[in-house]
Every structure is written in structure tokens, then in C-alpha cells.
Batch of 3 targets.
Target 1
Amino acid sequence: MSLKEELKLKKGFSIVEHEALLNIYFTTAGVKKRADGFFKALGLTDVQFNVMMLLHHQSGPDEGLSQAQLSEMMLVNRANITTLIDRMEKAGLVVRVSDSADRRTNIVKMTAKGKKMFEKAEPLYAKLVGRTMFGFNQSELKKLMAVLEKIRENINKPA
Amino acid sequence: MSLKEELKLKKGFSIVEHEALLNIYFTTAGVKKRADGFFKALGLTDVQFNVMMLLHHQSGPDEGLSQAQLSEMMLVNRANITTLIDRMEKAGLVVRVSDSADRRTNIVKMTAKGKKMFEKAEPLYAKLVGRTMFGFNQSELKKLMAVLEKIRENINKPA
DNA sequence: TGTATATAGTTTATATATGAACAATTTAAC
DNA sequence: GTTAAATTGTTCATATATAAACTATATACA
């Protein structure tokens, strides 16, 4: 269905660039809403799962990542990570361990409970991703990523 | 730059479908951050501008839209609209007018101040959209929208 | 060595988002 | 025509996001 129909707009878009941009925006919103429902059933949020995915795939089994590294890998503000890790620590999914080499730094590590939860969630999430991106071949996906990469470059170009 | 580089990840993605999905997600995040900075300089937020854009383009000059209509056109919860319109009303950008035909309904209309602000912001926003989507021809944009539309259809398909 | 600067994390104020429960009102069903 | 169901908007609890101001620490450099 076209975006105009999905949003029940009375009038369409006069500029196709704008329509394309809103298509990206509302597709992300839809993907996020779908993921929200999925993770809620597991007692998680999409953002919390993302933290666990980074801890699992981007650090050694017992290494963990600092809050600054998480902030960088998630493209969010440091302040955001503080409250996010507060909630995850309260839920028993991760712990903060102080870094002996740099006393400013907290290393975030998954607990046994967190690991168990992640191992249960990940294959189900992979299926959801498969269903979401169903019907495209590798070349179409590469083309899509190239377009999106170019848009991200446009954003970062000085006006 | 590839997403792996932008997020400073140590390891890449093993599933291209997942990589493509994260590309959509982080492109939206980048676009939103860019727009946030732009609107902040005008004393607005991206969401507040979107409300004004809907009021301007989707309703007659003095008709306005109900909160339920705004909720539908923005794909957000009704509760969200309540607080959003509270803030916009407080800022003098819009007013709530009760609907004589249905006493449950509030009609949201732009004030003179809101209209003035919107007319100043819209051409600047159009330029930003042009820069963001620069370097694609109409056929590439249509192809992109078709891909995104298919993803939205995949999401809404029953598992 | 000392000082200036940078970095890590927290706190606060603010904006956006959801779902659930609620009141007021309208519409549908019988 | 009255009752049941649906719709509109609000309030509350909660999760995520930012920027700015702050403390504590580490690094650079002169």
C-alpha cells in the first residue's frame, strides 16, 4: 500500500524526494513497532536486545563493553546509556564492573540470566528479520544499502 | 561509509538481511538527528513541524484536523497527541476548538503565529530534504519506495 | 611537574513514544 | 428506544532520546 493510503492522507506528496524520505521514516517506525511487540512477549525491549546483541557479538565471552563503546555502537547519547543500563541492571540482565585500568570507565557485562535470555531470543529474532526482509535477493539488498549509505553521506555533507 | 565503520563495530554482520534492516534503522536515526538540529534553530521540533505540515496541507485553510486524525496520519498513539498538542498550544502554535458536531472531538487549528512560523520553516525544510535526497533520479526513488513498501507489507503479514 | 584539555559517566529538564484504565459521548443492534 | 459496543481524548506508569551542567579521572604539553 502507498504511504498516502497507509496514513489515510487526503492529498498526496508534491515532491518525490519528500515522499521517499517519509517512506524511509515510516518503514523504520513500522519495523520498530513490530519488533516492540515481539520483544514485549519475551519481557525485553528492542533497545535492550540490541545491547545484549552488541555484548554477545562485539566483545569476547567475558570482556564486555564500556558505556562509551555502547553509546558509539548505538549512535545514542551517553546520558541515554546510563538510564538504559540502570534498567537492565535492575532487571538482572547485565552488571557494571569497574575497569581497573581506567577508573572513569564502567564495563557492562551480561549476567547468566542475560545470556540465557539472549540465547533464547536471538534465533526467534533472526526469524523475524528473515520474514521482514523476505522476497529480496542479495543484489537488491546491496543496492538498498548503497542508496541508504549515500543518503547518510548527504546528511553529513556541509550545507 | 559502511554501517560497520560508522558504528565502529569490531565484527561485521553475518546476515545481509539484518545488515540491510539496520541500514534502514540507522539512516532514519541520522535523518532525524539532522532534522532535530535544523528545527531546533527555528524553535521547533521535527514532530511539531510535522503537525503543522499536516494542518497546512491536509486540511482547508480554516478547517483543522481532529486529534484522532493527527494520530492516524502520524501513526502514533492518541495519548501521544494529547501531550504534543498541549506543548504546541502552550507555545501558541495551535489551538484546540471543540467540534459542534461531535462533543468528544477536539479540532486542532494553527494560530496566526503557527502559520507564520510554518511559512518561514517550510521552504528551508524543502531545501534540507533536497540536500538529503540529492543524487537520485526519479526512477531510483520510485524503486526505493517500492522496496520499502514491500518491507511494510512483510511486517503486516501474519506469521 | 603542573596546568590545560579531553574523556567517562551521572543528573536534570525536556520531548517523544507506548499501553492500560478511565470518562464522556456517539453509534449500532436488537 | 434502550442497551451494548465503539470512539475520542485524558491521565498514569514506563521506556527511550537529547543537551547542558556537573564530578572524577586521564592525557597532553610546555
Note: Residues 99 and 105 of chain A are 6 Å apart (CA to CA).
Target 2
Amino acid sequence: MRVVHDVAMELRQLNSFVVVAEELNVGRAAVRLHLTQPSLSRQIAALEHDLGVELFARVKRRFVLTAAGEAFLVDAKELLRRADEAVRTAQRTHRGELGTLRLRFVQSATFEALPRLLGTFRAAYPEVVLDLETMTTLRQTDALRDGRIDVGLLRLPAAEPGLSSRVVSHDPLVVALPAGHRLAKRKRIGLAELAEETFVLYTRATGPSVHDAIVGYCRAAGFVPRIVQEGADVQTIVALVAAGLGVSLLIAPTPPIDPEAVVYRKLSDNLPPWQLSVAWSPDNSSPVLERFLQLV
Amino acid sequence: MRVVHDVAMELRQLNSFVVVAEELNVGRAAVRLHLTQPSLSRQIAALEHDLGVELFARVKRRFVLTAAGEAFLVDAKELLRRADEAVRTAQRTHRGELGTLRLRFVQSATFEALPRLLGTFRAAYPEVVLDLETMTTLRQTDALRDGRIDVGLLRLPAAEPGLSSRVVSHDPLVVALPAGHRLAKRKRIGLAELAEETFVLYTRATGPSVHDAIVGYCRAAGFVPRIVQEGADVQTIVALVAAGLGVSLLIAPTPPIDPEAVVYRKLSDNLPPWQLSVAWSPDNSSPVLERFLQLV
DNA sequence: GCCACATCATGCACCACACGCATCAACTCT
DNA sequence: AGAGTTGATGCGTGTGGTGCATGATGTGGC
């Protein structure tokens, strides 16, 4: 016994009914339905029997819709339309043309990689809903493994266990200096030249690898950086540099800012570039994710 | 080939899909559907094949809805709900509990018969839409024969060919006099006493039978009424009587009015009462009409 | 007014398809 | 590692939907 509805009515019968109601002639309707007249005649009779309702009045061997038939015709058409719609929705969702992509990204991705990737994706799949938010690398990897998000734009120093990933850009470290700084006129700056400076750095809490790597580079250059302040996000760090609290080492691309306040300079040291990666769970079979990865 | 939708999907499959999606276990779902597990398993496979979409991800012998499955589940539930609704609507329409009753009535019915009949009907069938309008007897009979209306409240002197009817009230003629009239103090008035009066009567255009009958009664009483004015509706006629243009003969019930302006008096003559009838077409098989006639 | 035609219903034979039973395959849990 | 759970598949069977032939009934033409 059916749980939701308990009538043996089927979509095939509804379709037959609609065609007969439109033609008001069983023979012609049968032709349209690629059936024989007797078969269709019985189909309608069965539908009426199932409903317990006469849909047509057989007056003088002619079909006329009854009041109940009129009412049912409207509903039947609507049902068939919606059934068709439901099928197409399922198929488009299957193809990844409909659905939601839950994307998270580190803040430094917002300046270049994110708009580039989203621009391409949105042009190809305009009907996919984008669920976007910034999130640190650490929390992204957790969320990816738990299936709470589909894809992350993050800073992976190496392959992450349990996740697939692909590098989308190599970003160098740059020096951020207050505009009036003694080194501000130079094109390139050696890391060792910053030995006596005070530093404003990314806080360890959000992404320990960035913080630790920068400190490591400084040690390799022969000094321990004097960190006077940490900032949770790039905008804050740049503001602190502009305020003259110190210099900073940032991952490019950097936020646009007034060159009268802060300047960015390349490092002459040959440090390995920082990788920005797209990461996802190999268990996640979301069609939308597949489409996104095809375009990366 | 189907005209509206061309997928072999059926409601039975949708129902099975919904139950499986709810249980996420084919065996338990099969129990709920009174089927065996293999049968249900094949039904789902057939549905997926028809749609060309995997609705479930078979991961480790366990069922999980895919993104397309999630989307389809919502639509499938909605479709089943609406299918059920459509069936109930058709059945209720068949029983005359839903639908429209197109009722027309002569103006004199509005004072008593109409509110009485409508009150009873509306209490019994509150969901039937009432299509109400005043209409003269002549136009009602035409409209009934053409099927433009379902039922009429009208003045039939005799059985109307092609229509069924039933008398619902017998209404006497009454005299309407200006309040200051010489006969206004009398309880009853003989028709012959009005021989010298001037008359305001129903116009022949709207209902010739009423006009002609009144003139006939006057002739039988020995005089030809001097008609100084005709009025299309009762309200107008009463206003003209109040203005002192003449007296009038009206069919009861009469509109309530200020007794300082106009008074109604019974006739002492033994004139046959005027009949108010309900009329309908015997060809009209509207279930709502049937219900209405049951209550008359 | 009678006969050919149109139209819906019904009897009958047939076959596809959905079903149940038995079993296989693969994963889980102890 | 073995028992249990769970979904898929092979196979035989019966029901139900189908086509063909025909009946019943109303319509229109000459």
C-alpha cells in the first residue's frame, strides 16, 4: 500500500486523460498517444474507476467533461508539467548545472585567485548557488574532511592526507614598509637587511605554517625577527605597518593601498614561493564540484 | 509517445523512491511498501535508468542520496502530495462539495426566498462558490436553456417548456398607496375601488406577464387602469408612489420603506397568488446543482 | 426513411513487465 | 575469520495493458 497516496492512478493515465479531454474524441486522442482506441477507452474507464469519479459525461456517444473532469483536467496538466520539471531539475543537478558550491578561501585569495576562478565558473554555470566565506587553511581542511564544504582555496605546504589538491598559483613573499622607511626607495630588499627592524606578522593562531615559515626564513638569514605585534588579517597588518609599528613580510598578492602610506618591495633572496591550492575531498561526489574542478 | 511528458516515470516509482529515500534501506522500505527487496531494488534502478540520473550513491553497500537525489526527493514528495490533492478535489467536485453555482433571481426574491435558500445551502456547502446576480424571468429561462446559468429564481405562470421547475412560494398582490391617500386608513381594499386612480406599474419590457396580468385583473374588476408611469424595479415604483404619482399593485414581499411615505394594503379580491419558482435545465448534470435542488 | 458512417464499449488472445523466490556479492561487526 | 546484513541479479510466473475484431448506438446523407 502506498504511503503518500493510495490511489492506483498513474502519470500515464493522467497524460491519456489530458489528451482525451483536449480532443474530446477517443479515436483522435488514441492516434496522438500512439494507442488504439479500445486501449485508450479502457484506460480512461480504469482511471474513472480508480478515482470513483466520472470525468466524462457520455451523452449521445459523445464525450463532454463533467464538472469534476474540468477540475481534474487543470490539476492533471499541472501535475504533468511539474513531473516534467522535476525530471529536468534532477538531470540538470546530476550534470552539475544546478546546485550549490560551498567554497571557502583564505583571505589572500580574494585579491586575485578567487575572482579569477569564480568569474570563469559563474560564466559557465550561472545557476549554481555559490556559498562563499573566508576561512583559514586549518579550518578548511577539517571542513573538507567532514564534508561541510565542497572546495577550499588554501595554503598547503605539502600534500594534505585524505584530501586531493592542486596548486593554482605560486605567490612570493614581499616586504611591506612604511612609506618613509629608509629602505622604501630601493627596488629589492635582502632579508638580512631587515635584521634590526621591528616586525608585524600574521598571528600563529590563524595559520601557524605561515608564521613559522617566515620566522624560519629570518633565522636562515641570520637573525631572529623582533615581533612587536601580530595581526589576524592582512588589512590589519598593513594598517599597523602604515602606522609605523614596524615592517612586515606578506604573501603576494597584497591588498591595494595608498602608496603614500605603505610600499611593497620584492625580496632579493631566492625564497621558495608560497603555494595557493584548490583542495577537495576525493569522497565528495558532488557534480557541481566536478564541474568546478574541470574549470580549475 | 507522451505529449506532455515523455518519460516512462510513474507515480508508483516516485512513491517507492520517496520511501527508500526516507529509510535509506531497501529492505525496510520494501516492508513499508508491501514489496520484496529485490522488486523494490529493481524499481529504483529502473527509475534511475529512466531519468538517466543516479539518485542514490551506492557507497559500501549503503544508500546515500546524491545531490540530484536530494533535489528530486523534494519534487517527488510535492508531486505525490499534489496528486493526492487532485484526486480529492475531483472526488469532492463530483460530490458537489466543490464548484460553482450560477444562480440568478428576480428582484422580488431578494427580500425573502433568496436569503432563505442561500442560507441553508451555504451552511451545508460552504466551499461552493456562489455566482449571484439579478436577472429578469425572461432572460433567466434563456440562460438556463443555453446552460449559461445553473438555476433561476423566477416568476413562472406555468410550466416552462424544456425546463424543470418547482414553486417555492406563493406571493399575493398588494396595493401600495401614498401615506396620505384616502384609502390608506383601510386594512383591505377592493380592486374596483381603485378604478379612478392613476397607476405606477412594472414596465412591460422586463416581465410582460406581470404587467399584463395586473391589467387583466383590473379589467375583470370593471376598469382599465390609467398608467401614468412605469418603473423597471420595485424600488423605483415605490419611490414614485411616495412622490404621489399614483398607486401601484406589487408582488409581496415588498421592500421595507418609511410608513410615513408609503403604505402597503391587502386586496380583498380573491386573486390567485403569484408563484416564485426555482427553475433548472434537466440536461444540466452539475453535482452542485443536484445538491442545491436537494435542499430546496 | 433507410443505410452508410462515426464513435465508444467489449470480448478475446497475447505478450511484456513487474513481481516473488532463490541466490550471489560485498561490506560490517564481533 | 566467520556470521550477519544488505543490495544486486537470474529465473519462472501471473497480472494487466495492448491490439484486433466486433458490438452497440447515435448521426448524417440522399
Note: The first strand of chain A starts at residue 56 and ends at 59.
Target 3
Amino acid sequence: MSERKKRKPGETREKLMSAVLTLVGKGRHFASLGIREVTRQAGVVPTSFYRHFRNMDDLGLQLVDELGLVLRRMMREARENVLQADKLIEESVGIFVSHAQANRSYFLFMAQGLAGESRAIQDGIRSEMRYFASELANDLRRLKMVDHLSDGDLDMTCDLVVRSVAFSLTDLIGVSADDEYQIEQIRKRTCRFLQLIFVGAAHWDR
Amino acid sequence: MSERKKRKPGETREKLMSAVLTLVGKGRHFASLGIREVTRQAGVVPTSFYRHFRNMDDLGLQLVDELGLVLRRMMREARENVLQADKLIEESVGIFVSHAQANRSYFLFMAQGLAGESRAIQDGIRSEMRYFASELANDLRRLKMVDHLSDGDLDMTCDLVVRSVAFSLTDLIGVSADDEYQIEQIRKRTCRFLQLIFVGAAHWDR
DNA sequence: ACAACATGTGAACAAGTGTACACATTAAGC
DNA sequence: GCTTAATGTGTACACTTGTTCACATGTTGT
């Protein structure tokens, strides 16, 4: 295979997907976007859309896949940086918040998709959250922090943790991306939520 | 004032608002609805819309107000029926789930609005949730169940409770309205979440 | 070099959109 | 009963929408 010429393959595809993210980042809702609007934002003729996607839901599903990559990157960074257990929550939530800012549009899209119009996208995002929760359960087991919990109870706990963190996305929506004070408040509150949950888990028995 | 004739005042207004709820109940997202589509569903000519609302966001805001009434009715029913404290969680979650089924469209609209396109609607729904959480805190204080918690910690706990219940709305979206088994699963899981949170609150200190 | 293919483009269409205006009907107040 | 305001209706206009088609261009494999 030789080196690529002027136009990289899949360049328009990327432009279309990031056009959606741009519009979502500007406050638009995915469900209200049309093909023409997206192609216009991407600087491409409407017909090009069909070269890469069958319809908007198709594009949304591929965005969910990219979202999965973003989440995995975040998870890896958390695993590398959270070494000692005592600051586990603070570190993890901090990494989450900074990723949510760096990839704001992806997380906005995620928050929208959970109650969005496309069932397939809903399921995709829910599936990503389940995977995330199960990985979290694995990590907690490995760190020997939850030996007294049954597998089912640990899964439930991690599910609740992931949900609580995900819900804080709706808080982040409400503040402008550079309002450091408000973001710090959200970060602290999310930490307290998780601490409360882990205190509950530590005293859970039945 | 005399009795009303054929056309009740505000009849079209109601028809428009419930037309939106009908469409949302069918799986559509509020952000993707247009004036013409709503008036068509309501069996009304497009121009009538402007007699009652300035635009779709205006209608959405008035729907948030009605949602507030629905939530208050639910709260009243919970207060009447939850007498003994030992079954507090089961009873409350049960009442929530049954209300969420009876007013499915309202709660779908609520779940959508949290990450919706209109900032005003987002804020409205968040405000309803805050009110709900503060009322819950009052009740718990009155029942003498949380004497060891400071006001701030109690507020946080109730906030987390309300969020967890609200998040289960996104679960209810995913199942058809008559899938009793799945709904029962969601009910049980939500109960466990709340139990875990309350165990955490019972052992919370600092 | 040439065929096969993937990708981008412009014009075109029918259908749907938001909104304004003038007009009809009804309800309420004097 | 008459006036006034509120509410519903039909028409119209300028745009936007999704989608198709025929065609141009560039890339790849042989």
C-alpha cells in the first residue's frame, strides 16, 4: 500500500461525525439534527452523507462506538493513576471530570442518548455503562476492598456508582465549560455521593 | 359567570399539550417535535398554536409546571400510605413506579428534558427535583430517622436518593409499558439502591 | 496502463416547515 | 344589544428537509 494522497479515506466520515459533536457541543440535541444541517456544518454536500451512513441513527450508533473508546481511555488513565486506595474516589472523580471537559461533546451526546429517540442508541449507551460497571467491579475485587460483598451486591454497588457519576453529566450540561467554580462544586458533590455509597457498601450485610 | 358553551376555554391548549405527551409516549423526543406535527396530532390548525404558546419551548415549560403537579400528587399519596417506617423504601418506590406507569408520558418528558435542548426546561426540571429532595429531607427529619445527620449531609443523601430514582426512569424507557416482569426487576433494583444509600447514611459520620 | 471501485458533486423533486395576515366565530362586560 | 377581546380557521409565502440520479474525480489492485 502506498502513502495517502490529498484526501484521506474516511475524511468526510470523520468530518460528519465531528460536525454532529460540534452541534451537540453548542447545545443542540441529537434528535433535532437533520442530515442537511450536519452536512452543512461539515462543509460537505448533503449527498455525501449517504456514502458513509444510512441515516442519522446509524451515525449515532457509530458515535456510541467512539464514545466507548473515550470511556476506555478514561478507564485506563484511572487505573494508571489511582495507585493508593485512600484517595481512590477523589482521583477517579477528578479524572472523570477532566475527561468530561476534554471530551465535552461526547459526554453530552451520552447524556442525551440515554433518553434519546433511538432505542438502538439507548441500548448502546446502556451497554457501555454496564461494561464500565463490571470493569469497576473487577478492579475493586482486585484491590481487595470489598471482600465481604457477594458478587451480586458488588455489581449492584458498582451499578449505582456508575449511575451517580453519569447523572452528574446533567449537572455539567447546566454550567458553561469554563465555570471552574461550579465544576469544582459538582466534583465535590459527586465525591460525597460515592463516599456515601461506599460507606453503605462497607456496612452492607444480608 | 355563566356555564360554558360547546368549547371550553383552553380546550385547544390542553389538546396541544397532551398531543405533545402522546407523541413523547410513542417514543418521539421532545426536541424533534415541530409545531405543525403537534397541531396535526391535536387535530387543530397550525395557527392555533400561537394563540396559546410563543414556541415549543414555551409549551415545554408549561408541561414542566404540570409535571410539578404530578410529582406533588405522587408525594401526597406517598405521605398518606407510608405510615410505618420499616417498609418505607418498598412502599415509596412502589408508588413511584406505579405513578411512572400511570403518567408514563410525563416521566418520559422529564427524563428527556434533563438533557434536552432547552436550558429553561432543564432548569425547570432540576428545580422540581430539588424541591422534591428537600421535601423528602423534611419528611425524614419528621420521622426521626436521621437524627445523627447534619442538615447538609441529609440534603446530600436525599439528593442522591432522588437522582437514583430519577435515573431509573431511563430504565423504564427501555421496557414496554406492559412488561410486568422487567418493571418488577427495575422496582427491586431501585429499592436495593435506596437501601444501600440509607445504610450509608446510617453509618455516615464526619 | 487499465479496469474496478470508492468517494465527492450538482441539480432536481416532492413534501414538510415556521410564521404572518385577514377573516370568522364565540364568550364576556357594559 | 352592542362592543371588545379571545380563540379558531384558511390561505399564502419563502425556506428547509430527505432522497434520488447522473456524473466527475481520485484511489487501488493487477
Note: Residues 7-53 of chain A form a domain with the Arc Repressor Mutant, subunit A fold (CATH 1.10.10.60).
